[in-house]
Amino acid sequence: MTAAALVQKYFEFDDYIKSETKRFNEHLATAKNSREEIRQQLHALLQKDGLQNAKTDHGTAYFSTTMTAKVNDRDTYLQFCLHNWDKGGNELLQVGTPQVDAMKSYLEDHEGKLPPGTDVSYFTQVNVRRS
Fold it and tell me: Could you tell me the pTM of the whole model?
């Protein structure tokens, strides 16, 4: 086959995959929405009852909290990391945002006080796993 024929076939498959993926996602939309509504109901139920999880014969619904970190003042944060290199600064410094595990460790070691120039946010969601 020529390069032109291969490129043409490639895009034929690419277009087919995109169209079938769209069709499949549309087909699943109702089920996905229903599953999300159930997750929201479980979230409300766990909160109302003050529970962290609910174990059943069918599976367990449980809360998990995810932390995200971001640098809001790059220069202040960089200076902090460099001045505290041997006290966690080397772990906190990376290209992009701070490593979450390093940030969690730093917060634990410093009574929840954030390194200068940073913010964190938390997102709690309900997860469901099979028994």
Answer: 0.57
